Amino acid sequence: MTQLTIDPYAPPEAVVEGRGSEADQEIWREGKFVVCARDAHLPDRCAVCNEPAQGYGFLKKMTWHSPWFFLLILANLLIYLIVALCVQKTAKIRIGLCPRHRARRERGLWVGFLGLAVSIVCLASPALVVYPDGGLARDVVPMVGLVGLVLCPILGVLMTQLVRPRRVDQDHAWLRVGKPFASSFPERD
Description:
The protein is an alpha+beta fold. Helices cover 39% and strands 18% of the residues. It contains five helices and six strands, in the order βββααβααββα. The strands form two sheets. Strands 1-2-6-5 form a four-stranded antiparallel beta sheet, with no helix packed on it. Strands 3-4 form a two-stranded antiparallel sheet. α3 (99-128) runs antiparallel to α4 (137-160). The two termini are 37 Å apart.
């Protein structure tokens, strides 16, 4: 009689849902990156911590181009934008998130959009509000708005970007995901 041994510390195995041919549905790991088809649906687990996503997932369009194109910014920002739009590759991936990381993403959206709106109001406050005696607030509030105008969108993007593309080619996308999620896929060289 053989005894079945189960490793309680092993990450759960991936149940891959995808579209297209059988080869397109395959998802594997290369080092710390997860490789999947450009239109893949990742398993119903959090792409950060590997907890159950409880059916929550969203479709994310990811764009990528070679980092060498960033050198064009030194020549001219407009030239870089035009070239980047022409050469970028896109992938549409369905990503699952657990309640904790879903809340983090939602907070990031609030910080980005609401912070941007409040910053614009602060910048416009000298034209909207009459400050008695000129006051310190007349000078400080617009400065706070200017700082918020720069920081809030950056913080919002950093908080919402839980999965990032490392590379995209004609068929596959290499994604930077959480280590527990990545370790649940088989390694391939």
